[in-house]
């Protein structure tokens, strides 16, 4: 048989297979009665396409507006948009992390993010919890304050030398410096040294690949991700060399020299094999640790600066609260005074609601050994289905947040909170919620408070003011000009806001 004949038969067989599989998914599949886009019901590549375009969160929101509170987003996936679903999915100990998350692993080892075995996840979460316990946070706070002070110096340089300050540029470097110091006992010094700044965009490429693969694991199996693989390799070796340098220097100082994430990880054993933690396992954790700690703080703070610059009443109120609580910039630290700033916390929560750093869907499934009926918000879920709640979509559900696209910190003082708090999941919820939540609030609160103690700010002039917002074009997914735009690749990238800083009149 000639080559062309083989090729023709191969193509014909592939087409026939697609017809059979798609026909089954459309007419006989257990999820066929759930509403959703036709293309999503036929192929997981529907989600992969939107993930590659960095808009999975916007697509989920649009689909909920069109089809209701439960949407079939892939042949075997359902996305919910209710507070009851949050409870049924993320507070249900029968469910495990979806096994599909392992396609994001670079070493083949589990991390606290990918582990679906509950013993492994519990072990790793305890290690993270030790690194950011109340005791560890008290010890780490002076180091964090040091990085905040460096941030203040960088903002002052920008104020004096630039027409406007791009807050994403400076705050993202700050976030990565903090998480590096927390994890390795050594800062990358991204705020002052350009040597390793490439890791911020390199990790974004890495996460785009991972999020796309998570939506469609066949993205990896078919080799379609090879172009992105080469993009990962570009500078990838330098990233690994950087991690190796950090770990080598940390080992030289001695594991017990400081209570940080590295110390707890390297002093532990795998709960299943009983073996010491390997460097490959630590690398897997580091690949999650950096964006989880750096991108989340950057996203929350930049979104808040965006909304405060556009809401003068809120800006005046939070500024007055901070400046009447503390006498000087140096007085700002964790403790009862900072905790008493309730409006500050409300502003942070509203910022996290509107622009959650992790805006997508965290997937859960039943173990293969569990055959008991499974119900989510009144819907019986067929075996083998992945379920989740999309963070962006539920945070903009008017049933819980009236006027959902408006920045209203006052909503967090409402007497009718109820489901509003259940639906608020910027750090996920349940047993797999983010262990670094308290650290994130402390870091963001100290940084914002110190900045507001020293500076007044307003949006930049002209077209520079619009950076970070939507296009303003009616009908577009990103058309809301006064909405801070996030670009979902598990964590989120963002731009701006561009602000004009000026020293506060004392």
Class by SSE composition: mainly alpha
Q: Helix content range of the residues, please?
A: 40-55%
CATH superfamily: Cytochrome P450
**What is the 3D shape?**
globular
Order of neighbouring strands in the sheet with most strands? 1-2-8
Ends apart, CA distance between termini: 87 Å
Report on this model:
This protein is mainly alpha-helical. It has a single domain, classed as Orthogonal Bundle (Cytochrome p450). The protein is 52% helix and 8% strand. It is built from 20 helices and twelve strands. The strands form five sheets. The chain has a three-stranded mixed β-sheet, with helices on both faces. It has a three-stranded antiparallel β-sheet with strand order 4-12-9. Strands 3-5 form a two-stranded antiparallel ribbon. Helix 7 packs parallel to helix 20 (437-454) and helix 14 crosses helix 20. The chain starts with a helix and ends with a strand. 46% of the residues are buried.
Can you summarize this structure?
This protein has about 500 residues and is mainly α. The chain is built from 20 helices and twelve strands.
Summarize the helices and strands and which ones pair or pack.
Layout: H1 3-27, H2 38-42, H3 45-52, H4 56-67, E1 70-74, E2 77-80, H5 83-90, E3 96-97, H6 118-131, H7 134-161, E4 165-166, H8 167-184, H9 198-215, H10 218-221, H11 226-233, H12 236-253, H13 261-266, H14 279-310, H15 312-325, H16 336-339, H17 342-354, E5 364-365, E6 375-376, E7 379-380, E8 386-389, H18 391-395, H19 419-422, H20 437-454, E9 455-459, E10 487-489, E11 491-493, E12 498-503
Parallel strand pairs: 2-8
Antiparallel strand pairs: 1-2, 3-5, 4-12, 6-7, 9-12, 10-11
